[in-house]
Design a protein that fits this description.
The complex is a heterodimer of chains A (about 240) and B (about 100). Chain A has about 240 residues and is mainly α. Chain A has 2 domains: about 190 residues, no CATH class; about 55 residues, no CATH class. Chain A is about 80% helix and about 0% strand. Chain A contains 12 helices and no strands. In chain A, α1 packs across α3, α3 packs antiparallel against α4 and α11 runs antiparallel to α12. Chain A is globular, with a radius of gyration of 19 Å. Chain A starts with a helix and ends in an 8-residue tail after the last helix. With about 100 residues, chain B is mostly helical. Chain B has one domain. Chain B is about 80% helix and about 0% strand. The chains are: A mainly alpha (about 240), B mainly alpha (about 100). At the A-B interface, α1, α2, α3, α4 and α5 of A face α1, α2, α3, α4 and α5 of B.
Chain lengths: ~240, ~100
C-alpha cells in the first residue's frame, strides 16, 4: 500500500518536475549571464563571492539586488536597504497573489512557502502559462536549474569579472524578453481583449518612460503602477465571464 | 565600513521573502469577487508586456537589434513556437543584426 501511493505520487509529479527543468533551462542560461554582470556591481559594493552567492540565492531578483548593492556600497542605514528592497520587489507581491489562485485550495503550507521562495518574473511567467492547477513540482523543477544559474553566476561575476565577450552578453540579454513574449502572445491571439491589453501595455510603458514625473520613477515602481492601473481598468470594463479562469 | 554586509543581506532577504511568500500562504481560498478575479487574470499579461517593451531596446548594443528581436519573438510566438525556440531565436536575431551593423 505504502509503495503503491509512493509510486503514484512519483508518476504524477515526475512529469511536472521534468517539464519544470526543461522550461527552466533557458531561464537558467539567461540568469547566468545577467547575474554575471550583477556580480560586477556586487564586487564594487565590496561583496565576496560567497556573500554574492547568498544574496542571489535568497533574493533572485536583478533590480532588487542591484538596488540593494548600491545601498551597501554607500554604507547607508539598514532601514534604507529594507525600503529599497520593498519598492524594487513589490511586483512579486502581485505575482504571489496571482499564483495563490492557481494552487488547489488544499495545497499544503510547505508547498506554498517553497514555491513562494522563488517567485521571479520568469518563473512566474512560465507557471501562469501552464493550463489548469499549478503543480508545485513544476516550479521545483524550474528552481532546481534557475536558482544555481543565478547564484553561481553572481559569485562567478564577483570572482572573474568581465570575461564574456560583449557580443554574447548583448545577444543573451534578450532571451528573457523572448520568454515573456512566448508567454503573453499565444493568449493574446486567442483572446482579443488580452491582445488589445498587451498592445496597450506596450504603448503605455513606452509613453511612461518619456513622460515627465513618470520617467523619474524607478523601472520597478513604474511596472507596479502601470500593472495596477491597466489591469484594474481591464477588469472594470471587461470583467471575466463566470466560466473563465 | 561601519555596517555589516551580512546584516544588510539578512534584512534584504527577509523583505524579499516576505513579499513573495506572504500572499501565497495567506490567501488560501479561491477569490469569489468578480472584479478581483478579473484583475488577477489580467495582471500577468500587463506586467510582462510592460517589462518587455521598451526595455528590450535598451538591452542590446543597438536599439534596432532589440526591436527586430521583439518583432521576431512576437511573430514566432504568434505561430506557436515553443518558449525555448522563441528565446533562442531572439538571441540569434540580435547576434546577427549586431554582427552586420556593429
Amino acid at each position: 500500500m505504502e509503495t503503491m501511493t509512493r509510486r503514484g505520487f512519483l508518476m504524477s509529479h515526475s512529469r511536472a518536475l521534468k517539464e519544470g527543468i526543461r522550461d527552466g533551462m533557458p531561464i537558467a542560461l539567461g540568469y547566468f549571464v545577467v547575474s554575471f554582470t550583477l556580480g560586477i556591481a556586487a564586487k564594487n559594493a565590496g561583496l565576496t563571492p560567497f556573500q554574492g552567492f547568498l544574496a542571489s540565492f535568497f533574493n533572485n531578483a536583478s533590480a532588487g539586488e542591484y538596488a540593494g548593492f548600491t545601498v551597501i556600497a554607500a554604507d547607508a542605514a539598514y532601514i534604507e536597504i529594507a525600503l529599497i528592497t520593498l519598492v524594487a520587489n513589490a511586483r512579486y507581491l502581485l505575482m504571489s497573489c496571482v499564483l495563490s489562485q492557481k494552487f488547489a485550495p488544499d495545497t499544503s503550507l510547505w508547498h506554498r512557502i517553497c514555491v513562494g521562495f522563488d517567485v521571479t518574473d520568469e518563473i512566474f511567467g512560465i507557471s501562469v502559462a501552464r493550463p489548469g492547477r499549478l503543480d508545485p513540482y513544476y516550479n521545483y523543477g524550474a528552481m532546481l536549474v534557475a536558482l544555481p544559474g543565478w547564484s553561481v553566476g553572481t559569485a562567478m561575476g564577483i570572482a572573474a569579472g568581465n570575461i564574456l565577450p560583449l557580443e554574447a552578453v548583448s545577444a543573451l540579454s534578450v532571451a528573457l524578453y523572448g520568454m515573456f513574449l512566448a508567454v503573453i502572445i499565444p493568449p493574446a491571439r486567442q483572446d482579443k481583449i488580452v491582445g488589445i491589453l498587451v498592445l496597450f501595455s506596450f504603448f503605455s510603458s513606452f509613453a511612461a518612460v518619456h513622460l515627465p514625473v513618470l520617467m523619474e520613477l524607478s523601472g520597478g515602481t513604474r511596472t507596479i503602477l502601470l500593472t495596477v492601473v491597466l489591469s484594474a481598468l481591464a477588469a472594470y470594463f471587461f470583467p471575466l465571464k463566470e466560466t473563465q479562469a | 565600513m561601519t555596517h555589516d554586509i551580512y546584516i544588510y543581506l539578512l534584512i534584504m532577504s527577509a523583505v524579499t521573502l516576505a513579499i513573495r511568500i506572504l500572499p501565497l500562504t495567506l490567501i488560501r481560498r479561491q477569490i469569489k469577487n468578480r472584479f478581483l478575479r478579473s484583475f488577477l487574470y489580467y495582471v500577468p499579461y500587463v506586467t510582462l508586456a510592460v517589462m518587455t517593451f521598451p526595455a528590450i531596446l535598451d538591452a542590446t548594443r543597438i536599439p534596432l537589434a532589440g526591436g527586430l528581436a521583439l518583432l521576431s519573438g512576437i511573430a514566432l510566438s504568434w505561430w506557436g513556437a515553443s518558449l525555448f525556440k522563441v528565446a533562442a531565436s531572439c538571441c540569434l536575431v540580435v547576434f546577427l543584426t549586431e554582427m552586420v551593423l556593429c
